[in-house]
Design goal:
The two termini are 27 Å apart. With 163 residues, the chain is mostly beta strands. Helices cover 8% and strands 39% of the residues. The chain is globular and about 55 Å long. Bound molecules: zinc ion. Zinc ion (ZN) binds next to loops.
């Protein structure tokens, strides 16, 4: 079986910067699971997945434009704690910390610049904005999606959505 529209794909990945620094890697016990063809991944990464089989390994390097966009200027905003996801669970906001802010378009990844008492200044650039990113991918499993998954537009079961 090969990866294509409406296949549920499990994969392992390592994400590194242009200089080789590892920035993210998924737990080997828990592959990332997604439904192909429903915009779950960065488009340039999803495109590379097409036609791959179980056990295939590949690397793909994405430009900032293909990944999380260029760094925008004037991107620092002051937000109140109530707009920060899980703010009660965060004991102390430290510069450089990655957090999520609730916006009208859903959760957004931002980086703490400065913390006040009731507000936090955040840089709304994506933490990986401006970075050229290399994904090292190993395809772990491929299966046909069931009708519910296709209707919902996401994978169910282990590693997927539970509801
Ligand atoms: Zn669902």
């Amino acid at each position: 079986m090969n990866i294509g529209k409406d296949k549920v794909v499990s994969f392992h990945y390592r994400l590194s910067e242009e200089n080789g620094d590892l920035i993210e890697e998924n737990d080997t016990d828990k592959p990332l699971v997604y439904l192909h063809g429903h915009n779950a991944l960065l488009p340039a990464l999803e495109e590379e997945m097409v036609g791959k089989a179980i056990g295939d390994k590949f690397s793909v390097t994405l430009t900032p434009e293909q990944a999380y966009g260029p760094v925008r200027e004037n991107s620092v905003q002051r937000v109140t704690l109530k707009h920060i996801a899980n703010s009660k669970k965060i004991k102390k906001f430290k510069p450089g910390m990655k957090i999520q802010v609730n916006t009208s378009e859903g959760l957004r990844d931002v980086v703490v610049v400065k913390a006040g008492l009731k507000t936090v200044d955040v840089d709304t650039n994506h933490p990986y904005a401006g970075k050229t990113l290399t994904f090292d991918v190993e395809v772990n499993d491929i299966r046909d999606a069931d009708q519910d998954e296709i209707t919902h537009g996401h994978a169910h079961g282990p590693g997927g959505h539970h509801h």
